[in-house]
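Feature request, filed as a ticket because there's no other form

It would be nice if the structure record came with a short human-readable summary line next to the tokens. Right now we just get the raw output. Example of a typical job, pasted below so the devs can see what we mean:
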Amino acid sequence: MYERLQELGIPAVLTRDYDENLSREERLRRANEAFGGSSNAILISNHINAGGHT
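Raw output as currently delivered:
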């Protein structure tokens, strides 16, 4: 999704690109830092789990 947004010329920022556990406060801090707290920013949160379920 990130790459597609870039292709379309839509500003996009990844707050993380690897698996890590973050507190709610850290997730919010990173999102606000990425866009300076702009009210025009949209946050998309993708959750894709590799649970290894067979």
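Something like this underneath would help us a lot:
The two ends are 26 Å apart (CA to CA).
Residues 3 and 36 are 22 Å apart (CA to CA).
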